[in-house]
Amino acid sequence: MTAPALSVSHDPDADWSLPAWLYTDPEYFEVECARVLRPSWQIVCHESDLAEPGDYRTLDYLGESVVAIRGVDGVVRAFANVCRHRAMRLVEGPAGCARKIVCPYHAWTYESDGRLTGVPMRRDYPALRLEDNGLAPFDVELWRGFVFVRLEDDGGPSVAAMMAPYDCEIAPYRLEDVRTISPVRTRERAVNWKNVGDNYSDNLHIPVAHDGLTRLFGRSYAIEAQPYVDKMSGRLAERRSDDPWERFYQTHLPRVDHLPEENQRLWLYYKLWPNMAFDIYPDQIDFMQWLPLTPTTCLLREMVFALPDDRREMKLIRYANWRINRTVNAEDTHLIERVQQGMASKTYTAGPIGASEVCLRSFARKIRERLPEARLHHPPAPGWSRRPRAAS
Question: Tens digit of pLDDT for each residue in 193-204?
């Protein structure tokens, strides 16, 4: 029997993982930050965290400090947290409220819509035009109550477009109405940012490394990949776990009336391109993003949201959820740190990807589309990123 001819669009690297040097190389890291991370959407907060005019939240990454602020006109905008005079940082900390933003260095004053309206000794600046020196803006998108920003626009899809394949199944969770129940928590990890995302979407390690999730889900864990979002899911098993917190969660999870029957005992995980994830449970929503710091370190940024629910059993269930996932997070941290160490070995280049590893395949494909050098199993000679690129 003759094997079918390969499609002209077949990717010769589709059956291979991204090579190890992409997880350690400083030159590649700089290019990846520029071409992948700077144009990507990043979550800042929930819109309810910016409830009143002047409320702001900050996000620091890739050498930029972003401030998202609600204007007196009710519009949420985002700006560089940098004074246009001498580059002073304007606001400190993760959150605050300011009807006007006043630079702590020389008291230049900006409105909540970014306009520069106050300059001491204004006549001392003959070249100054107030209208040309407002705060530098960044793009903002509001998706189902969450505030996203991006540093640059490369024509990529909106958050709404990325999540469109799952919009209908997310709708019952009323994300617009949730509130923050746990403030931003950050944790530095000694791994390349991609290792966090690879592990998040990896289905094969669940029965091997996560005994708790295996007890909770049985054989129901499933994954699928859309162009810009991965979906993982697991349904709580009827067989009661031997672990006390897992058994408590299985037994006492209260009914959530706004969810369909099939979602009452369903855990959903969505990973958005390239470095964000929502864990959606009947009782709460966890958010995580992994922000690159260096080629071999990243910062995990986490928040927890939920609909208002004062039931005692719901409070206990949310605590049980935290206990269960604290164990899962510890297991994953051990795994990704060991993988990062293995990436430094001279014996490892790239590994084969199974046909079932659809999420890893999807992520690797998008990286290769943006950075053709990612197809090389060994790093090119230093300085490759500064040489003219060959015409395609």
Answer: 999 999 999 999
Kindly give the residue spans of alpha helices, DSSP state H, lying in 253-357: 312-343
SS3 101: strand
CB atoms near residue 355 (< 10 Å): 8
162 Cβ contact partners less than 8 Å away, ≥ 6 residues apart: 41, 227, 228, 229, 272, 273
Q: In the β-sheet with 42-46, what is the strand arrangement from edge to edge?
A: 42-46, 146-150, 137-143, 76-80, 64-70, 55-61, 95-97
Q: pLDDT tens-digit profile of 286-339?
A: 999 999 999 999 999 999 999 999 999 999 999 999 999 999 999 999 999 999
CA–chain centroid gap for 182, Å, is: 17
Evaluate if pTM is beyond 0.90. Answer: yes
E-assigned strand segments in the chain: 42-46, 55-61, 64-70, 76-80, 95-97, 100-102, 109-111, 116-118, 137-143, 146-150, 179-189, 222-225, 229-235, 266-272, 276-280, 285-294, 297-306
The 3-state DSSP class for residue 92 equals coil
Contact 160, 141 (CB under 8 A): yes
Question: What does the pLDDT look like over 223-266, one tens digit per residue?
Answer: 999 999 999 999 999 999 999 999 999 999 999 999 999 999 99
